[in-house]
Each structure stands twice: as C-alpha cells, then as structure tokens.
Automatic annotation (TrEMBL):
Coiled coil: none annotated. SUPFAM superfamilies: HAD-like. Pfam families: HAD_2. This is Haloacid dehalogenase. The lineage of its organism: Archaea, Thermoproteota, Thermoprotei, Thermoproteales, Thermoproteaceae.
Length: 205
C-alpha cells in the first residue's frame, strides 16, 4: 500500500478561487517585493502565480514579512473554499493509506481547510519558514520523513506542474489531476481527470 502525498489547493479543496491573490500581490508590490525566480508554468490565475513566484524568490525576514501578507488573504479564502469533485469518495477509498498534505498554502489557512472538510492526515507540510517550497523537493522529502516512508513507497497527487516537479525531484511517482484541463505540461504517465480516477489509479500503482 503506498503512502500518499497530497497537494491541497485545487486537488482536494478549491481555495484559490476564494482567495484575493490580486490584492495580496498589490500589497507585496507596494512593499517592494518582486520575484527574481519563477516556478513552472501552470494554470493558476496570473496574480496567484506572481505571488507564489515572489514567495519562491524570498528568504529570511523578507519571506516572513511577505508570507504574513499572503496568509491574511488565504485565511479569508479558507472560509469560502469548496471541496473539489469526489473529495469524499477519494477519502473513503484511500482510508487505508497513510497521508500527508504537501501544500504551498500558509499554515493557518491549511489548518482551517483541513478542519472545515474533515480531512484526516498523518502529517502536514505547508508553506513554512526554513523549507524551500515546491517546486523544490524539500517539502516532499520533509513529508516522507514525517511519515517514515521512502520515496519508492510514496505517490504524490496534485493538480499543478509545481507539484509534479517537486515529486520528481524527490524521486516520488506522481499522479496528475487535470480537473479537465486540456493544455498542461505534465510529463507523468499517470494522468487523471479527477479524484475519483485518481483513487482508482493509485490502487494499481
Ligand atoms: Mg494545487
């Protein structure tokens, strides 16, 4: 039985569409924060991508300040968030698999979303100081260490190219959930449309 590493936003729950990342971006830019590196192309809103690129670029005190700004908006977003299709089906059909959340969302918003939707997991790695975010392998490796699992035992499931790069860099198999999107940049052979298909596929790996 594999252990599951699960992205949160738009894999299990839709938080992004309820989070005002454009206001967060304006606030970050007003404070002089800018991206000096960028994660892979994906299908997020433009503001979301820019905010995540800025957080990816920062470290130390600057990261802490910027993270606080973004987290305020995400906590609001967590209150409006809605489950992705087949969330309950997925959870019920993977009850026997240990799970960790590996998310780019801030810790407070992550906690709130997991509570609101009764998502029970064995470990959580959110956006936190000292761990380089996805697409770096670091959060995936941290989740594996919290679960006491090796990369070969694990399968990561996510909806974005950032998830895939992170899993790949950590040596973990990756199931993409496209949410019906036709244009994507996934390279994994394991492509699914939604959590129902992902729940079936993960049993065959
Ligand atoms: Mg996601």
């Amino acid at each position: 039985m594999p252990v599951l590493l699960l992205d949160l936003d738009k894999t299990l729950v839709n938080v992004e569409d309820f989070t005002d990342y454009c206001s967060a971006l304006r606030e970050l830019e007003a404070r002089g924060f800018a991206a000096t590196s960028a994660g892979p192309e994906t299908y997020w809103g433009k503001c979301t991508k820019k905010v995540m690129d800025i957080l990816l670029s920062l470290s130390g005190d600057e990261w802490i300040e910027a993270n606080k700004v973004v987290e305020r908006y995400e906590i609001e977003g967590a209150e409006g968030a809605v489950p992705m299709p087949y969330l309950q089906y997925f959870l019920e059909n993977t009850l026997d698999m240990p799970k960790a959340i590996v998310t780019l969302l801030g810790a407070a918003a992550t906690k709130r979303v997991l509570e609101r939707f009764n998502i029970a997991v064995n470990a959580v790695v959110s956006r936190e100081p000292g761990i380089k975010p996805k697409p770096h392998p670091d959060p995936v490796l941290r989740a594996l260490s919290l679960l006491g699992a090796s990369p070969e035992k694990a399968v990561m499931i996510g909806d974005s190219e950032w998830d895939e790069l992170s899993a790949k860099a950590a040596g973990v198999r990756f199931i993409a959930v496209t949410n019906g999107r036709e244009k994507h940049f996934f390279t994994t052979p394991f492509i699914t449309r939604d959590l129902k298909e992902a729940a079936h596929l993960v049993r065959k790996l």
